[in-house]
């Protein structure tokens, strides 16, 4: 059976970016394990359930999974999961990832394992793409250098944070994804003129944001 490991933020994952791939892969028969940095239940970003911003059917799908999906409600700690045992490792996005997933050494190890292994593949979505600014390969080199990627663009971040980089909930955003990943040497293109943006570079798949989540899941299934 094909397997996938979802590494999800405890500080605010974006509903559609997690639940859409989770459900699509489940429907395709993929056996999924969910992990978080400490093994605590991942928190959904309430902004991803805002009816003024998100379609009602997506809100219902995300809310149902967040409340009732046993995998999300009883995750494993990342440190206790062997990424090499899975065919794919998925990193859903959400601003929360900048505070935990992207900075977690076990999450970065899981990414490296998926990308460098003979059989694995990684899907990294939206703000989780920021992990590429900090992940290194087995030789100690920046993993994303010279690789084409997409992700949450600075042009969108400008419409969310204030002049002090504070989020609507008051938290200060410590870094912007596009700036950091570009500085790490990636070939960044968020394809702002397109409705969706999914980039494939070998065993690394990146997706721009919520509307790209479904396409990203289909791309991952094609790879698997």
Question: Which key terms come to mind for this protein?
Answer:
224 residues; alpha/beta; Rossmann fold; 7-stranded mixed beta sheet; two-stranded parallel ribbon; 29% helix
Account of the protein in words:
- The protein is an alpha/beta fold and 224 residues long.
- The protein has a single domain (3-223), classed as Class I glutamine amidotransferase (GATase) domain (Rossmann fold, 3-Layer(aba) Sandwich).
- It has seven helices and nine strands, in the order βαβααββαββααβββα.
- The strands form two sheets. The protein has a seven-stranded mixed sheet with strand order 3-2-1-4-5-9-8, sandwiched between helices. Strands 6-7 form a two-stranded parallel sheet.
- The protein is globular, with a radius of gyration of 16 Å.
- The N and C termini lie close together (11 Å).
Number of domains: 1
Show unreliable segments: none
What order do the helices and strands follow?
A: EHEHHEEHEEHHEEEH
Q: What is the residue-mean pLDDT, rounded to a whole number?
A: 96
Question: Helicity range of the residues?
Answer: 25-40%
User: What's the architecture in CATH terms?
Assistant: 3-Layer(aba) Sandwich
**What coarse outline follows from CA principal-axis ratios?**
globular
Compute the number of strand runs.
Answer: 9
Largest sheet entry? 7 strands, mixed
Assign the structural class, choosing from mainly alpha, mainly beta, alpha/beta, alpha+beta, or little secondary structure. Answer: alpha/beta
In short:
It is built from seven helices and nine strands, in the order βαβααββαββααβββα. It is of the alpha/beta class and 224 residues long.
């Amino acid at each position: 059976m094909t397997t996938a490991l979802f590494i999800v933020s405890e500080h605010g994952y974006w509903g559609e970016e997690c639940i859409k791939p989770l459900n699509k892969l489940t429907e395709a028969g993929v056996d999924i394990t969910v992990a978080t940095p400490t093994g605590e239940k991942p928190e959904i970003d309430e902004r991803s359930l805002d009816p003024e911003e998100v379609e009602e059917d997506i809100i219902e799908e995300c809310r149902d999974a967040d409340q009732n999906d046993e995998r999300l409600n009883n995750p494993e700690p990342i440190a206790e999961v062997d990424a090499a045992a899975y065919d794919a490792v998925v990193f859903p996005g959400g601003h929360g990832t900048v505070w935990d997933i992207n900075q977690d050494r076990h999450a970065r190890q899981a990414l490296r394992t998926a990308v460098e292994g003979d059989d694995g593949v990684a899907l990294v979505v939206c703000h989780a793409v920021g992990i590429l600014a900090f992940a290194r390969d087995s030789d100690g080199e920046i993993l994303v250098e010279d690789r084409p990627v997409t992700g949450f663009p600075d042009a969108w971040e400008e419409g969310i944070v204030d002049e002090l980089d504070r989020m609507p909930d008051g938290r200060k955003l410590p870094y912007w994804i596009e700036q950091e990943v570009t500085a790490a040497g990636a070939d960044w293109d968020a394809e702002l003129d397109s409705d969706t943006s999914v980039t494939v570079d070998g065993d690394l798949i990146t997706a721009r944001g919520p509307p790209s989540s479904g396409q990203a899941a289909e791309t991952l299934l094609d790879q698997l």
